[in-house]
């Protein structure tokens, strides 16, 4: 007796084409909207995280930015990264309402969400009062996150941009100690900030969008010496992708308003067990 067939068999040519397609896509095939098979990541011992920039409730219109942040949370939850990093400017005008709305939406994440402080969050020139308000409403303004052999160092760039006596010294000591500890452990380091150290060139003059040359040189040297593999920032509201001595430097798209005409969205990062990082854009759906 011949065995029963479950359905029509494919012609040999179709089988060959499907096999070739599967080989080309591999176990980590991605679609244009950032969705992909997570089984490949798990098998390789890696993980994924999301970089968001400038949710900045009120920058693109308050209700618009509330809605775009809500949509981003839903979309990211569905994609299931390990965690989310927000690169500062959580709100446009720091007050009780904006911080409350930000916290209400952030609480909808089903994964950890770690935030850097931006100039709109703690003021262009931070004060003891503005830092206290941020720490009370949002949480720590600088800290480290350890995850699967990586160290994420989340810094407060306003304490570099506009030093505050009694705060910037403590911040600098913490930053050096955090980098040294990660190096001693052999961990690749990702520095997460709001201001980028530079936008176009490492020797550019100081502007609203970068850190001053003297401090920038000090920080770049520290990063180079201590195994930093990437510096993630926001603030520019423009996509900026640079490289400095093997370190990736990425200012991503925002969910509030982009000045370069790019669509709203966020960056998806894949981190491998050997310290290799790759990223791609995921456009925000529904706006």
Walkthrough of the structure:
The chain is of the alpha/beta class. It has one domain (38-283): Metallo-dependent phosphatases (Purple Acid Phosphatase, chain A, domain 2, 4-Layer Sandwich). 34% of the residues lie in helices and 20% in strands. The protein contains 9 helices and 11 strands. It has helices at 12-25, 39-44, 62-79, 96-106, 119-122, 128-137, 158-161, 168-185, 213-225, and strands spanning 47-52, 83-86, 113-115, 143-147, 150-154, 189-192, 228-233, 240-244, 247-251, 265-271, 277-283. Strands 4-5-6-7-9-8 form a 6-stranded mixed sheet, with helices on one face. β4 (143-147) and β5 form a beta hairpin. α3 (62-79) runs parallel beside α4. The longest helix is centred in the first third of the chain and has 18 residues, at 62-79. It is globular and about 45 Å long. The chain starts with 11 loop residues before the first helix and ends with a strand.
CATH class: Alpha Beta
- CATH topology heading: Purple Acid Phosphatase, chain A, domain 2
Domain count: the total is: 1
Distance between the termini: 59 Å
Structural Rg: 21 Å
Rounded average pLDDT: 88
| Quaternary | single chain
Overall SS class? alpha/beta
Question: Which architecture would the CATH scheme give at its second level?
Answer: 4-Layer Sandwich
- Tell me the major beta sheet: 6 strands, mixed
The tally of beta strands, per DSSP, is 11
Q: Helical proportion?
A: 25-40%
Corresponding CATH superfamily: Metallo-dependent phosphatases
Q: Shape from CA axes?
A: globular
Unreliable spans: 1-43
The topology string of helices and strands comes to HHEHEHEHHEEHHEHEEEEE
**Major sheet strand order:** 4-5-6-7-9-8
Number of helical runs? 9
């Amino acid at each position: 007796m011949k065995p029963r067939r479950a359905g029509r068999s494919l012609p040999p040519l179709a089988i060959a084409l499907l096999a070739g397609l599967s080989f080309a896509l591999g176990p980590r095939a991605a679609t244009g909207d950032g969705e992909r098979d997570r089984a490949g990541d798990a098998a390789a011992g890696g993980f994924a995280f999301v970089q968001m920039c400038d949710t900045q409730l009120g920058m693109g219109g308050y209700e618009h930015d509330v809605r775009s942040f809500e949509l981003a949370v839903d979309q990211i939850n569905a994609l299931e990264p390990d965690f989310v990093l927000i690169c500062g400017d959580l709100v446009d005008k720091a007050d009780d309402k904006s911080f409350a709305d930000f916290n209400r939406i952030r609480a909808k994440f089903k994964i950890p969400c770690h935030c850097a402080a931006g100039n709109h969050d703690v003021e262009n020139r931070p004060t003891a009062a503005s830092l206290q308000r941020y720490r009370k409403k949002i949480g720590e303004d600088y800290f480290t996150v350890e995850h699967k052999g990586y160290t994420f160092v989340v810094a407060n760039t306003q304490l570099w941009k506009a030093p505050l006596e009694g705060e910037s010294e403590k911040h600098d000591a913490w930053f050096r100690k955090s980098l040294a500890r990660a190096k001693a452990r052999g961990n690749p380091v990702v520095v997460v900030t709001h201001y980028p150290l530079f936008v176009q060139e490492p020797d550019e003059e100081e502007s609203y969008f970068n850190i001053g040359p003297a401090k920038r040189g000090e920080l770049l040297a520290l990063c180079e010496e201590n195994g930093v593999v990437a510096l993630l920032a926001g603030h520019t509201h423009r996509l900026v992708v640079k490289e400095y001595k093997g370190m990736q430097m990425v200012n991503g798209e925002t969910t509030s308003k982009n000045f370069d005409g790019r669509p709203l969205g966020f960056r998806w990062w894949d981190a491998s067990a050997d310290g290799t990082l790759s990223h791609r854009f995921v456009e925000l759906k529904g706006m």
